[in-house]
Amino acid sequence: MSPTSKPASGERTPLLADGVPSRNSIDSLRRAEQEDAAIHGTPLSPTPTARTRTVRELLLFSWALLATAGVIVLAVVLQHRNSTTNPPTPTDPIPIIPGDPGTGTPYPAISLPPKKDRKRNLIFMVSDGMGPASLSLTRTFRQHVNNLPMDDTLVLDQHFWGTSRTRSSNSWVTDSAAGATAFSCARKSYNGAIGMEPGFKPCGTVLEAAKRAGYKTGLVVTTDVTDATPACFASHVGYRWQMDEIAMQEIGEGLLGRSVDLILGGGRCHFLKNSTAGSCRQDDVDVVEIGQKKHGWGYVDDRAGFDSLKLGKNVSLPLLGLFAERDVPFEIDRRHMNDVYPSLSEMAVTALKALEEATKDSEKGFFLMIEGSRIDHAGHINDPAAQVREVLEYDKTFNAVLEFIEESDTEGVLVATSDHETGGLSTAWQAPNELPVYNWHPEVLLQANASAEYLTLLLQQHMIANPVEEQQQLQDWIREDLVEKRLGIKDALEIEINALASNPLLAMNIFSKMVSIRARIGWSTHGHSAVDVNIYSSGGPGTEDIRGNVENIEVGGFLRRYLDVDVDEITRELREKMVVDVKEAEMTGRDGHPEEWFVEVDGLVGYATA
């Protein structure tokens, strides 16, 4: 068809880009209609007048306007009907808006449906310093030792729930104090804070609120009971090293009175007046005596006393059990001293039974915090042989709690997580310029039967007892008695033995490195790291709120919601009673830590465990 020819009447013409026809295009269409009428002999429709076109356009406009209004009205009606007859269910996802980590403002809590007035128990476990690599290390070690298949995993693995982000309000890398405050208060705070928000403002804890609501409460740890994690649930001080004051508050000398019914762990030295053997207090206050006479505490301080409790069947609350001067030994060492120190799992089972008995006729259950404290210490020392036994004992304790919940007639929930990772553990290590070595050797950890901490103690005791011993004799003793007999290392280098004999203050790190290198295990730090940590749970009402990746304060938020307790009321009471000196900066020093955390050792800066 030529550019000037017209299409037949049955053909379709292309659509124009402009949907509104111009005056010229209307005239062209009219001429085309006239031509078609002449060719086919059909009558031509009358030409519309301007008035006719105006009326038609008005009618079309009115119809479009009415149709649009109708659609809007219908949409409003449907929206109203849905919002009143089909409200969102509590399981619908609610967006989490990040809070302000600089002020400690919590992330918005996810609301649970109203709880029925039912009895319930909540067990919260903390694996201090345990990161995901610690689980990999322990799982493989267990499979190797027991010749298990690859799918035979830890109990913890079978109850994996999610992960937690761990930063504090003043550092990307948290310490245990800020980490535990996130759990106990559901608030972000500064490193070193014990039940305090930024500005040195006290925050109520879930344990204190639970006690006020009628629950029984307990703390079980393998470290000093005045250490950061347990302290954050039952005391309020500006800094974690105020351990003498923490001891006083834990037995009931704080602003709220006694909030804890049962405490089991180490740290006896902070409860004895400084004129007593084994005390580490700075004053002459007898905390045990005050607890017994003023607050009614029962007290046991040795293995015989623990055994008299009959795993919780012979306990009168409140009970204070302090079984070590400071920390309970690492499990790798404690198992050889079982007649002196109870294990984490034994103390946990005792606490569970005691609290169950104490609440059997009550409408309320109990809240118990259990900490595998010394996983963290093994990470600080970079001692894989000690850490793997700590995680195994923690896994055993986790299983014991699960069994308790399953056998109990009372509803119960177990939630477990870590405050942070320690050591930057890697389950493989390769030297620079070395050919690929994609492996590590769990058998090296199996051969070790003592921790680097205990070996260092033995070395220092030996050197004190033998001050004039010849250097060669000392080296022979180190090689035979410590390295070969207790670490199982038969290929120790002369430079390693010489270093141990010449630098006893550095022996702990040297022993740990000897094991790590041979096992091909790597460490990136002797401090904490910012890696996300795992969450584990038995499941139960509300636990879906902490599925996936959550902030650590969301774990704290779940604890208070599950128990249905008013922590904010406790916070208001504390702030009314305590003179709060609000400060802008919590501490000065390096990297968010005060100078007191750094200690000089032989001209080297050593980082205190946290």
From TrEMBL:
| Membrane-traversing stretches | 58-78
Indicate yes or no for the key word Phosphoprotein: yes
Concerning Pfam families, the annotation shows: Alk_phosphatase (PF00245)
Listed A to Z, the keywords are: Hydrolase, Magnesium, Membrane, Metal-binding, Phosphoprotein, Transmembrane, Transmembrane helix, Zinc
Reactions catalysed according to its record = a phosphate monoester + H2O = an alcohol + phosphate
Q: What cofactor does this protein call for?
A: Mg(2+); Zn(2+)
- The segment annotated Disordered runs over 1-23, 29-48
Give the EC number(s) listed in the UniProt record: 3.1.3.1
Q: Which domain of life is it from?
A: Eukaryota
- Compositionally biased spans, kind Basic and acidic residues: 29-38
Family, similarity comment: Belongs to the alkaline phosphatase family.
Q: Write the protein's name.
A: Alkaline phosphatase
Organism equals Podospora comata
